[in-house]
Amino acid sequence: MNTPDFPSTRYLFGAGAKQIVEFKQWSREHNVYANVWYSAYPDTSVRNILTDIDIAEKIGKELDEQETLSWLRLL
Fold first, then answer.
1. Which end of the chain is flanked by fewer CB atoms within 10 Å, N or C?
2. Looking at residues 41-68, what average pLDDT do you find?
């Protein structure tokens, strides 16, 4: 038993956690909501990640002039 009141398990693999419904219920009951959120990487946001994906997907592809200008603005 690793956590008080947590559904019991046997070993990490094989005969480990098999009580999925109980685990989900326990997790919901013990969820702690944070009033603040910390990011170790303040310049990273979902918008930045999506932009990076868009940039990467167009590398090596043939783009017309308008698509090229649009892609360059992402940089």
1. C
2. 88
